[in-house]
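Need tokens for this chain, all 371 residues.
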Amino acid sequence: MKNLSWKALAAGLVCCLCACGGGSSNSDEPTPEPTPDPTPTVAFAKGADISWVTEYEAKGYKFHNTQGQERECTKLMKELGLDAIRLRVWVDPKENDNWCNTADVVNKAKRAKAEGMDVMIDFHYSDWWADPGKQNIPAAWANHSYEQMKSDVATHTKAVLNALKTAGVTPKWVQVGNETSNGMLWPMGQADKNPKQYAGLFAAGYQAVKEVFAEAIVIVHLDNGWKTSLYEWNLDILKNNGAKWDMIGMSVYPYWTLMPETNSGYTNADQVIAGAISNIKHVAERYNCDVMVVETGMQCADGKTGQLASSTVLADGKRQLASLIKQCRENTNGRCKGVFYWEPECKPSQYALGAFTEDGKPTVIMDGFKE
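Here are the structure tokens for all 371 residues:
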């Protein structure tokens, strides 16, 4: 975009100089219309978080395309029309068999690179899950001061990214925290209690990313993509305390949003998607930055029984995904840069919002990426 902007500026300057320079000696000939530069193509990522894949493989789980041909999961995602992979990172998950530690993440990222797919790295800054309900400090950092914790964030971030660099992988996007709707590394960086420290910890992660990969797009990731008040509250804390980000990441889950306990006010999936689209446009203008749906998922299974959902429910999941992608591409003034599905490859018996069958084949939901 920088080169295109420079070319457009140069072309405009030449036209201006010609107009002010006295004109042609052959004034009877019509002045040809300038040929404008072609409109640049805006990249729109279609991706998936498949961080569970190596753990599944270790347990003997196989993946197949719709024709029944066995495929490595990353290759299958590419075959299904996706062009990007998102991978979570835990600090020291030894109690969880080291899945999603640095070595595991590098392994999966190399697969994505081999397929020509872009990579997003999602730092949880925890030894296991970090989300709006929990942001647990890693055990090794437990007794550290605020200044030490900022150093911990920076050191861990740079160590993982340098490992990727050594492996020849350059991530396009890096999340500093996962669904940090009320901050990170609680209680030290809990946004409603210690807003300045939340901003300081995020800033430490941002700076660390840029020191290793200066061109990487740093994402701040919040949940409930439809909830404008949450985004203004959280992002104003970062902005007002000197923290920077490059892109806003959203989680958009119609299924979870429609649960009665969320009190969202929405009654169907289309309303949830419309609310998210409205919020994307709002925050993009308010903070003058791009946005991406870094997590979404549609119902694939009965949440109580773990049984694959009916064909009607799966077809509606496909429709919802296709609608979300289409509206993100066409109805956000170009500010939404992609949609990522969260763990589509997981078994219905494990997670209700995947997009595969129990025996490792994609359901019709995945066809939403092709429409």
